[in-house]
Design a protein that fits this description.
alpha/beta; Rossmann fold; seven-stranded mixed β-sheet; two-stranded antiparallel sheet; 4 helices
Length: 184
């Protein structure tokens, strides 16, 4: 299968997970990530994403982390890249490009420093390989921000043993699903 075919196939597979099951699995993933972030990782700055369609929903985790004084940043995709802006409330969003919810306030931009990125994708391996949506935004961002610890987040159904990779594809530092967490 080509990368394009894999993207189509795995997006279809993810869309076929019933909504109620996706909600349950998303909550399981949020609980697992919360334990990892609060007990195993030293970061207080977290780069997240607002779920689109059938993606994992990390908003319950975002609510908890905001209560615990974490700094949360959400992406805005522009023609020249992806930029992350600080969010202090889950009410601070509006629909932006590609029908993705984006931060309304764009005061504080994440620029550099130690942080963890909870990175979306369509397909991952437990060794850290990732196939995203094809724009290369996260690959470029992670290349430009080497201090960012990247965790690929997805449903277990999005894990494969091996996937094709291009030279510019950036591997994740770890992968987290509702049932497992593994450093790559």
């Amino acid at each position: 299968m080509t990368i394009r075919q894999l993207r189509q196939d795995y997006k279809k597979r993810r869309n076929e997970i019933p909504k109620e099951k996706r909600e349950i699995l998303s909550l399981q993933l949020c609980r697992r990530l919360h334990r990892i972030l609060t007990e195993q990782l030293p970061y207080k700055t977290v780069l997240m994403f607002y779920p689109l369609g059938s993606e994992v929903n990390l908003l319950p985790l975002a609510e908890e982390l905001l209560k615990e004084q974490y700094e949360l940043y959400f992406p805005v995709t522009e023609k020249d890249g992806i930029f992350f802006y600080k969010v202090s409330s889950l009410e601070d969003f509006q629909e932006g490009a590609f029908h993705v919810m984006e931060p309304v306030t764009r005061q504080k931009l994440y620029e550099t420093g130690a942080a963890v990125s909870l990175t979306p994708g369509l397909l991952f391996t437990m060794s850290g390989s990732r196939i995203g949506y094809g724009g290369g935004y996260y690959d470029r961002f992670l290349t430009d921000h080497p201090k960012v610890y990247s965790i690929g987040v997805c449903f277990d159904q999005q894990i494969q043993t091996a996937i094709p990779q291009e030279n510019w594809d950036i591997s994740m530092n770890a992968i987290c699903t509702p049932s497992q967490y593994k450093k790559a």
